[in-house]
Amino acid sequence: MKVEKVRARVRVKGLVQGVFFRYNTRETARELGVTGWVRNVPDGSVECVIEGDKEKVEDLIKWCHHGPPGAHVEAVEVSWEDYRGEFADFSVRY
What we know:
Blueprint: E1 5-15, H1 21-32, E2 35-40, E3 46-53, H2 54-64, E4 72-81, E5 90-93
Parallel strand pairs: 2-5
Antiparallel strand pairs: 1-3, 1-4, 2-3
């Protein structure tokens, strides 16, 4: 059975900055074994690019719908892109 590799660009809106959202996203991504990055966006949202096995990427997207304690997620926008396999791990970008 071949595992499908995917790439998703995710934008999380709400109270998601200043609540350790990026740090917890990185830790959850590493636990799931997906790669990519997460960063704060000037408009107050958080953006991430996630690559890996489709099921694991979807698991991280589900996690983004609630985030860490203290976060209040109002919306999660997902756009699917072509898998590139360009990341060695999952990092926080500044």
